[in-house]
């Protein structure tokens, strides 16, 4: 079952613990036997709907699909990153890109023109000045260039430089943000060290404010002419008056403020990322135009704006509101898996550009929010408003989209692909609708491979809450909804009935001479051992946690016992019951050994079967979960194993005294397994190992011929009545430790 999905079962809830991993099989409808009960796949939470694909549909935080803005791809740039987007009073869009570092003008038809190219790694930020000129800051040189929006192909050498860090005392290394005051003066936020510079019309840059933080990351003016600035280091939000005197409005819980905006009512909104006191970002890897990859450390610690990878930052982002007036700062939103790169205010709520999943969120003051766009990029990096919509820049890959101001006249949402785990019939869709109960159409399609682009059926319309979906029986399915303004969809559930798949017996292992036990060993009991499956025995890795159902089975050695264990699964999650059969070598019929076994092991006495070679068959049935006659079975046959409980036979014993030794000879024969070894004892003395003739014991019959020295008289023992009489005991073992003891009297 795919992660995060919810199933409602008519049978007991214990079935939820059983996995579904079926391969798809095709059946004709008249012969279908169904799994236990109808099931219901539901999606109702924000997290459920996030796994689907919206286009012109917003996913609200309370788990509803509502009409949202349309998102249209405008341009895919040659660069990996679009770091900033700006628009002029005519709505023309301009892009600041990285790898390669350029400034592009985007015409109404989506064509781009290079206005500026740099040898730097990226153009980090871009603003349109009051005079209509473009102001672009490059990284890591930290220069700011003034560009004519109609002059093309400017470079570092031909564009006008309005700020060069080498010309100021502090010599900052990076420029992070630009903005203009009401008088048209340019303010430049820098890092390494953190400072803000002011550039008047035609004047040289002057230091406006210097901070003890590492970077001033983002700046914006409020209505009173104060500069609002967010820092990287300890995550401070400053209010700086026109004279350069600063006041800390908020010491945020995060280390870096990535964006600040001022709403029309004067409220301030800010985004914070990163854990204080720790840099959670790796160095930035940048690929230049010459196809040379270099790894550089952009900042220490690194700014999230400079990091362009797809690794999630621990703890994600937080958004803060500083209300206009005397209200205290407060956190209004947090996203554990999303990094906020930029904010933009709209009448419907402010927008948050996030990575590393390419999401755009609309967030309200009360903390409710909606996912309004899934873009085909890893990071959404910036916004710029225009009469026909909001331009959105992305990174990985460097693209530009246009987000409509209002609701799309028609939007679509496509669910994730659902895996029923087995071939299934699809029933009625249960859909929770808004008050209007209309304004949408629903479609479904099905297939037998997870990728819907590979030979699935066509989309077929269906009516919510009435009748089956009308799609083919299959393993996979997907639904789609087309919404119009005013509609709202809550929970969507799809009823389905999986075909009953036959159980599968995965492995069998038979262990003669072993009896399974669930009790810990007691003093004096036989040695406890474990019975493992061949797949585990062959790994040679003892520290790997065994999968459920394949844990080592505790057992004890017992010569007259046989233990069989098996692993099995059912793709429908049905309860299973097992029957065991045996068949001897040369036989054709299987004989019942035990039925109605619920455990996945069974021990029995080997005396139930004559000595010989056997195989066991385990038959699994899902009958406990089905009506009589509808159950299915699966089986597996074990490897050959040997039952041998009969000891060898000793014949032809000869024993006589020869030169003070006992010369003994005999023949040992076993019907089933090779004779392994023999021992002798003289006059109840210790047992002594003896080899067969030829030394190698590997046959059903072995001959022994040896001389055994007489033991020395025992000190203090009574003298024997007949000093020439001795008793030699002979003990012979077969390969399965069956043994026989015989004796001979020698005079």
Percentage of residues in helical conformation? under 10%
Q: What is the alpha-carbon Rg in Å?
A: 41 Å
Specify the biggest β-sheet. Answer: 9 strands, antiparallel
In angstroms, what separates the terminal alpha carbons?
Answer: 81 Å
Integer average pLDDT: 86
Strand count: 58
Query: Which spans have pLDDT < 50 for at least 5 consecutive residues?
Result: 1-33, 280-301, 306-312, 539-544
Number of helices: 2
Overall description:
The chain is mostly beta strands and 747 residues long. It is 1% helix and 51% strand. It contains two helices and 58 strands. Strands 1, 2, 3, 37, 38, 39, 40, 41 and 42 form a nine-stranded antiparallel beta sheet that branches. It has a six-stranded antiparallel beta sheet with strand order 5-4-33-32-31-30. The chain is elongated and about 135 Å long. The two termini are 81 Å apart.
List its salient traits.
single chain; 747 residues; mainly beta; six-stranded antiparallel β-sheet; elongated
Structure summary:
1% of the residues lie in helices and 51% in strands. The protein is an all-beta fold and 747 residues long.
Topology:
Elements: E1 6-9, E2 39-43, H1 46-50, E3 53-55, E4 57-60, E5 65-67, E6 71-76, E7 81-87, E8 93-98, E9 101-106, E10 112-118, E11 122-128, E12 134-139, E13 144-147, E14 154-155, E15 160-163, E16 174-180, E17 186-191, E18 195-199, E19 206-210, E20 215-221, E21 227-232, E22 236-240, E23 246-251, E24 254-262, E25 268-275, E26 284-287, E27 293-296, E28 317-322, E29 330-335, E30 339-344, E31 350-355, E32 359-363, E33 369-374, E34 379-386, E35 389-395, E36 399-403, E37 411-414, E38 418-433, E39 440-447, E40 460-462, E41 474-483, E42 489-498, E43 504-516, E44 528-531, H2 534-537, E45 553-569, E46 577-584, E47 591-597, E48 601-605, E49 612-621, E50 633-637, E51 641-643, E52 649-658, E53 661-669, E54 675-682, E55 688-690, E56 701-709, E57 726-734, E58 739-746
